[in-house]
Amino acid sequence: MTAILSYIGAMLPYLLIALPVILIFRLFYNKFKGVEKVNHYHEIGVVIFLLFMTALFSQTILTFLYTGPVVTRSFSNVNIVPFRVFQDNYYAITELNFWQPFIINFLGNICIFIPIGFMLPLLWNKFNRFWKVSLIGLSISLFIEITQLTQARSSDIDDLWLNTLGSMIGYYIYFISKKCVPHLALIFKRR
C-alpha cells in the first residue's frame, strides 16, 4: 500500500501542472473546431482522461524527472520471455513471502490500463469497438516499453499483454455499464 501511495504522491505535481494546460487546450480546441454547444460531461470526461494519461506517462516514461527507485541501464532490465511474471511472482510470494511484485507488477499493470479501455469508448463513438480499444491499449503499452528501453528503466514483454488485458477489461466494464445504464454512454458523448 505504501508503494501505491508513493506512486500517487509522485503523480500529483504533474497533475497540478497539466490541469491548467489541459483546460486551456480544450478551450482553444473547442473554439477552433467551432463547437457551439459544449457537453460539459464530455469535457469533464476528456479532462479526466488526459489527466490520467499524464499520470500514467509521468510514472512510466518521464524518467528524467523520475523520483522512484533507480534502475540501472542494462539489458538485464529487459525481459523478452513471455509469462515470466508468473514465475517471478510465484517465487516472491512462496519463497520470500513478498507480495509487492504481484500487486505492483501484475495487478498494477492490469489495473492501470482499465481506465483506457473504459473511457475511450465512453467519450468517443469511434472507439466503440473491442478490437480498437485492445489495439490502442497495446499501442500505448508498446510505446511505453520502447521508450523505457532508452532510459534507466526496466522493459518487460509481460507488461504488454498485462496492459492490453487491462484495456480489454476496461472495455468489458464499459460494455456491461452501457447495458445496465444505457443513457450513461449518451451523457458523455459529444453532442
Can you tell me about this structure?
The chain is mostly helical and 191 residues long. The chain has one domain. 72% of the residues lie in helices and 2% in strands. The protein is built from eight helices and two strands, in the order ααβααααβαα. α2 packs antiparallel against α5 (114-123) and α4 packs across α7. The chain starts with a helix and ends with a helix.
Describe the structure in brief.
With 191 residues, the protein is an all-alpha fold. It contains eight helices and two strands.
What is the element layout, followed by pairings?
Layout: H1 2-33, H2 40-60, E1 78-79, H3 84-94, H4 100-111, H5 114-123, H6 130-149, E2 155-156, H7 157-180, H8 182-188
Parallel strand pairs: 1-2
Protein name: Glycopeptide antibiotics resistance protein
InterPro entries: Teicoplanin_resist-assoc, VanZ-like
Transmembrane segments: 6-29, 41-66, 102-123
Biggest sheet strand order reads 1-2
Please report which band the strand proportion falls in: under 5%, 5-15%, 15-25%, 25-35%, 35-45% or over 45%: under 5%
> How far apart lie the N and C ends?
41 Å
Q: How many domains make up the coordinates?
A: 1
Pfam family, one: VanZ
Protein name: Glycopeptide antibiotics resistance protein
Keywords: Membrane, Transmembrane, Transmembrane helix
Domain VanZ-like: 48-176
List the main descriptive attributes of the protein structure presented here.
single chain; 191 residues; mainly alpha; two-stranded parallel sheet; 2% strand; globular
